[in-house]
From TrEMBL:
Recorded catalytic activity of this chain's protein: ATP + H2O = ADP + phosphate + H(+)
Species in which this protein is naturally found: Phenylobacterium hankyongense
UniProt region (Disordered), positions on chain: 381-471
Protein name in the entry: DEAD-box ATP-dependent RNA helicase RhpA
EC class name: hydrolase
Span(s) of short sequence motif Q motif: 2-30
Length: 471
């Protein structure tokens, strides 16, 4: 079996890995690290939780350690683009942890906070800059950041970038990069538009690494779908939490307003809960995550902003209060549990008007998710812990080949890309607008190609810098 010591990484990196207790690389790390260390471009296809951050961070840090030099003023040697603030922060922390013995300088730039701290952190330049596309374009427009010295460009979670409308902004950012550079491209799925973008960015004959089939769910996750009437979902969720086995649970909703409502309903029945979504300030989001990690709240209620980029140990369950409109999001949602080799459970609620979404999910994941009707089952809380088939209730298996008419099916299809939000209701996942120094920056600077509703950003500054640097 391959060990990190077999990959030729610099001694300070091996020491940092030993400090973290890591000895054996994951499949994507073992396949990607040698090629990236040699300077090759990389196209990586990997689902969430496979260790892909280390797959690009470790070889990048190895090359930085071998060729130490001062980065340009207001510039960087490595640029990593990330779709969300949370994922950007997590990537930055990984670079800092792995590079702690080589003196690497790291800055993280995202929207929703003031510009001052970000400008200060970038004044003398950094080795690694991790940024969200919208705020980076704002800095480029103001000439407070330059990309002329970028040696390695990493595009992470490319398919989520597509979902959030960031493809045009990414193409704008690439125009600021030098032509001679190394490109590392990562995506969990490879839809046509993402494949086209990869062809534009990568040099000829890139190293291609695919550790799992596209949109494959983690095998260690115990999945179940519970059929339930829409009006009974909150009561059903409360009953789930009667089971003490639901210790640390992420609950996914489709909209920001829905996340707040679900969190309040849990609090009303005595379940400690916190909500996280795009309308929360950065300070609120950080506090909610910190309380969830510390075990102060049992439930973190989130929109798909948390489907990627949240790496929290010991998440016992993922509950999908509403099924996602984009089938691939199901994979990323349940990937928040069963991390680092642990087991986990995922429960999805499915109302009658969501059955077409369930069929789409099963087609994409190429599996039939065990499903049964719990609307008349009084033993819900106890039975769902181990999730056996309930006595006296025949499993309602869903055949992806069939097509049965269901109430609201045509309306759900019509709303596939826009959610089930009421008119005027902002839908999570669309980029926010930037509004001067305090505005949100997770948004494209150009109008996205789709016509969906736009996420609001506003002046939700928490007063934090939105950046950290280990200078």
């Amino acid at each position: 079996m391959t060990q990190f010591t077999d990959l030729g990484l610099a001694a300070p990196l091996l020491k940092a890995l030993a400090d973290e207790g890591y000895t054996t690389p994951t499949p994507i790390q073992a396949q990607a690290i040698p090629g990236v260390m040699a300077g090759r471009d990389l196209q990586g296809i990997a689902q969430t939780g496979t260790g892909k951050t280390a797959a690009f961070a470790l070889p990048i840090l190895h090359r930085l350690a071998l060729t130490k030099k001062q980065p340009p003023r207001r510039g960087c040697r490595v640029l990593v683009l990330s779709p969300t603030r949370e994922l950007a922060t997590q990537i930055g922390e990984s670079f800092k942890n792995y590079g702690k013995h080589i003196g690497v300088t790291v800055a993280v730039v995202f929207g929703g906070v003031k510009y001052g701290g970000q400008m200060k952190a970038m004044a003398n330049g950094v080795d690694v800059l991790v940024a969200t596309p919208g705020r980076l374009l704002d800095h480029l427009g103001e000439k407070t950041i330059t990309l002329e010295g970028v040696e390695t460009f990493v595009l992470d979670e490319a398919d989520q970038m597509l979902d959030m409308g960031f493809i045009l902004p990414i193409r704008r950012i690439v125009k600021f990069l030098p032509k001679q550079r190394q490109n590392l491209f990562f995506s969990a799925t490879m839809p046509t538009e993402i494949g086209k973008l990869a062809g534009e960015l990568l040099n000829p004959d890139p190293l291609k690494v695919s550790v799992t089939p596209s949109a494959t769910t983690v095998e260690r996750i115990n999945q179940r779908v519970l059929f339930v009437e829409q009006a009974r979902k909150r009561a059903l969720l409360a009953e789930l939490f009667d089971d003490a086995g639901f210790k640390r649970v992420i609950v996914f909703t489709r909209t920001k307003r829905g996340a707040d409502r679900v969190a309040r309903s849990l609090e009303q029945v005595g379940v400690e809960a916190a909500a996280i979504h795009g309308d929360k300030s950065q300070g609120q989001r950080e506090r909610a995550l910190a309380e969830f990690k510390a075990g102060k709240v049992r439930a973190l209620v989130a929109t798909d902003i948390a489907a990627r980029g949240i790496d929290i140990d010991a998440v016992s369950h993922v509950v999908q209060f509403e099924l996602p409109n984009v089938p691939e999001a199901y994979v990323h949602r349940i990937g928040r549990t069963a991390r680092a080799g642990a087991d986990g459970s995922a429960v999805a609620f499915c109302a009658d008007d969501e059955r077409n979404l369930l069929r789409d999910i099963q087609k994409v994941t190429r599996q039939t998710i065990p499903a049964f009707d719990r609307r008349n089952d009084r033993q819900l809380g106890a039975a769902t812990a181990a999730m056996p088939e309930p006595a006296g209730v025949k499993p309602d298996r869903v055949d992806t080949r069939g097509s049965q008419p269901h109430r609201g099916e045509h309306a759900a299809k019509r709303n596939r890309n826009h959610g089930n939000a009421k008119p005027g209701h902002r839908h999570e996942g669309a980029p926010a607008r930037s509004n001067g120094g305090g505005g949100g920056g997770e948004r494209p600077a150009a109008k996205p190609a789709f016509k969906g509703p736009q996420r609001g950003g506003g002046n939700q500054s928490s007063g934090r810098t939105g950046v950290w640097s280990n200078r």
